[in-house]
Amino acid sequence: MNRSGLVWRQLVLPVPADEARVRSFLSALVTATGSPTVAFEAIGSGGQVLWRLGTEPWAVRDIHALALAHLPGVRLLNPSQQHIVPESERVELHLHRAAHLASDVVATRPPAAAAALRFNGTVSAPLRVEATETVTRSLLSMLASAKGKESIRLQLVCGGRLKPRTPTEQLGHPKAAREVQQHLGEPGFVVALRVSASASSESRARALVRTVAASLKGLEVPGSWLRIWKSSLSAVVEARSSWWLPMPLRISELPAFLAWPLTEGLPGVASAHPVLMPPSPAIPSQGRLLGQAATEAQGRPVALTAEDSLRHLHLLGPTGVGKSTMMAHLALQDIAAGRGVVVIDPKGDLVADIASRIPSRYMDEVVILDAADEAPVGINPLAGARNPDLAADVLLGVMHSLYADSWGPRTHDILHACLLTLARRGDASLVVVPLLLTNPGFRRSVTGRVAKHDPMGLGGFWAWFEAMSDGERQQAIAPLMNKLRPILLRPQLRAVFGQRRPRFDMTDIFGLRSGHTEAGHERPRVVLVNLAKGALGEEAARLLGSIVVALVWQAAVGRAGLQAFQRRPVMVHIDEVQDYLRLPGDLGSALAQARGLGVGFSLAHQHLGQLPKDLKAGVMANARSRVAFSLSRDDARAIAALSQGTLKPEDYQSLPRYHAYASLLVNGEAAPPFSLRTTALGSPVRSLNSAQGQSRARFGQSLSDVEQNLLDLVDGGPGDSVPTGDQIGRVRRPGGTGADGRSA
């Protein structure tokens, strides 16, 4: 037991602390069970002011509960156990190690001085409580004046209780009578008020004590003035109750003696922003863990249920604040829970973080799609589609959205016909489109078949196309070729999009094919897409990412006919969402529909200005949970407005790294925002190269194999029948005559 016999806790106070709530807390202390001694201290050291609260051991739990109930945002920390909070977070959130806070001897080590303070005449006449804010500012200024190794300690020990009573003396002036009656009608404490200081010399320590005491003179009223008495240092160390020089103080008078931050911009007080918001008790601690509550040193876990996750999660904040760490945690939890997972990563770091930490027992179900790989995994929306026309429309929609600024009706018409033709063939790919348009022999071998089965549709288009002269055709296809060539000239993308029969099908992620693969493996349910723009190029990365997301949506819609219990939840995590989310039709309707299809999106980006108008509207309206990290001024205003006055833009702007405000959906209802900090990822269990090697062995194809397969298609190699008898367009008959009458 320490010399004071009290258990001390550091107080981390909300700034500003509401004075009405402070009085409410003090009133509750008056009636606390057992009437325990309660001591308040403000300690100035190194230009800053910290606060602590002490009480008797048996009353600690009750006093702490009262503080938490009456002072929203307050934190009570055990100074001797502050190592629980990482140093970086302690500095950024103004939680100081301050080991001396665990000691009784702070500001009493020689050379030191101490004084006891008392206002005479406070039994009936109230002090000048309207000066509380001014006195508080002066007190904090003096406490913050302690420099270097100096320290100052303002101590208020609340012992005996004062009951409300009526005045016994007669006061002639009605106003004075009312003031005295109101004053005595409040409960209060019999207190001991002390100041001590430790400095380089005893004279300096006495000077510090006098400056703090002088700050309280602003409370004096006629007939009640401040007296200063010399005190022993041991009285401060032991936090003795008021048996000598007791001073009665009513509830309305007490806040002026606490030196608590009752307003903003006070000396020695850390910034009021970001304010710390505790999580609602309704926020679950189990489920998809997002991090820990920043208001608790022990860090209560905070989570989002899988059901609420289907209403989508919006992650907002600049690079380096913790978005990717949170997404990696969520993806790893989804994998461990058996959900389908798709990750779209424009940088590559997120894929590396996830792939290197997936437990080995799940690696058989993981596909890593990286166009820069030596034998990449392929995707081909046109190959073996259950609904070829829908597959063509999905791919057409992606291309249209990517090139909307330079998209004309002829480009749309030609590409649509090409995609429909190749999709109905069933074994071609996007890479074949330029060949289809520029290689007459190959084109006629392909179009003859589809024209025979659709003479009024595709047959009519290809007849028109063949009827044009070479110059007219070149002019017609030039805008489309300008869009395709810069992408498909890249060997990396040809290896991905050129696979006529990819070894991976996006429908596996959604459980649309049951059982194991032909090789006896588990069907894949995790797709990690690495779109590192440095290796792939920005335009190519947008195309690949957008097509993957479109295929995910197509597969999701494809299981609409399944019963709800048959739809395995699939979580789609998209970083830099503005580059890749191109769902068909109205985005808001699609996101709303996704919940019923068992698909939950985690949508991350850096600032709201990145989002096109329709995308921004869809995300803001339909992502019902939001985690906002440190924001720019404009974004902070927009997001703070959603908190209904709970948070200010300055709170979002002041958030340190790895901290955020979370506004979550809980059982379908919006919960108030709270302070959250992300947790670090665990240690890797393998290298990214090792994970890619496993994926490559099962699902990858080399560029040489892909191109050889395409050549077989063009040349009519094994397995590729060429229906030469089904050609359409202008075909010269052998031995016929031309327009000039000469033999052809």
Automatic annotation (TrEMBL):
Residues 297-381 form the Helicase HerA central domain. It comes from Tessaracoccus aquimaris. Pfam families: DUF87. Residues 735-744 have a biased composition (Gly residues). SUPFAM superfamilies: P-loop containing nucleoside triphosphate hydrolases. This is Helicase HerA central domain-containing protein. Transmembrane segments: none annotated. Residues 714-744 are annotated as: Disordered. InterPro entries: HerA_central, P-loop_NTPase, T4SS_component.
